[in-house]
Specification:
Helices cover 47% and strands 15% of the residues. It is of the alpha/beta class. It has a single domain, classed as NAD(P)-binding Rossmann-like Domain (Rossmann fold, 3-Layer(aba) Sandwich), CATH 3.40.50.720. Strand 1, helix 1 and strand 2 form a beta-alpha-beta unit.
Length: 253
């Protein structure tokens, strides 16, 4: 299947590690030019960009910036356009996930999580839509939510869960607003994956998680990335406002 991604320009926020890394590499494998956004992981982001240029023979850059900052978001978009050209695809993957029970969560911890995960998604989407609208071009936005948006958690991730639930509602609202402009907005809801962020939790509670997953295994970032790339492509041309369950059967919705 031709996913029609050759020479498309994609920005992946939080693209230097875990799922973001897998998404960046998967987009590049389909011929897209990729901007890998990072906040602290400069060496990792630059390493992925170098790998993409070497192995996939497409352009790739590492772009610093905090998606929770309006000024940083504008600078990220400007840097991408100057280096790779106008954006066609935005993947909102950047996220933080503190671990603490609600009764022990400080207000600033709650606020900071929503600022990165939800407000960051709003800021990047707003900038993307503004630029696409000004140029009269269509585009695709994929927001990385979580199965926890529907199920919550018992391990102290309430701010993260709430932010991911808000992301799904925002995805639907934005999709309705911009459909007539030829801009599609969809989301994915991954279940548990093997990443740096989840390694400690998995090692301590592996049997518990496996018992809840009908496929009886933990997913890989590459499996989720494949769905993200599909939603970012022309193959998903009749989809908008959707949230795709990629949880090994945990959600089944």
């Amino acid at each position: 299947m031709d996913l029609q991604l050759r020479d498309k320009v994609a920005l992946v926020t939080g693209g230097s590690r875990g799922l973001g890394r897998a998404i960046s590499l998967s987009l590049a494998a389909e011929g897209a030019r990729v901007a890998i956004n990072y906040q602290n992981s400069r060496e990792q982001a630059e390493s992925i960009a170098a790998e993409i240029r070497s192995h996939h023979r497409v352009e790739a850059i590492a772009v610093p910036g905090n998606v929770a900052s309006e000024n940083d978001v504008m600078a990220i978009f400007m840097a991408v356009e100057q280096s790779l050209g106008p954006l066609d695809i935005l993947v909102n993957n950047a996220a933080v996930c503190p671990t603490r029970q609600v009764v022990d969560t400080a207000e600033n911890e709650w606020t900071d999580t929503l600022q990165v995960n939800l407000t960051g998604t709003f800021l990047t989407c707003r900038e993307m839509v503004r630029r696409l609208k000004a140029s009269g071009r269509g585009g695709r936005i994929v927001n990385v939510s979580s199965a926890a948006a529907f199920l919550g958690s018992t391990t102290g991730h309430a701010p993260y869960d709430a932010s991911k639930g808000g992301m799904i509602s925002f995805t639907i609202s934005l999709a309705r607003e911009v459909a007539s402009l030829g801009i599609a907005v969809n989301a994915v809801a991954p279940g548990m994956m093997s990443t740096d962020m989840t390694s400690e939790t998995l090692s301590a509670n592996l049997d518990k998680y496996l018992a809840r997953i009908p496929l009886r295994r933990i997913g890989t970032p590459e499996e989720v990335a494949g769905v993200v790339v599909f939603l970012a492509s022309g193959a998903a041309s009749y989809m908008t406002g959707a949230t795709v369950d990629v949880s090994g059967g945990l959600l089944m919705r």
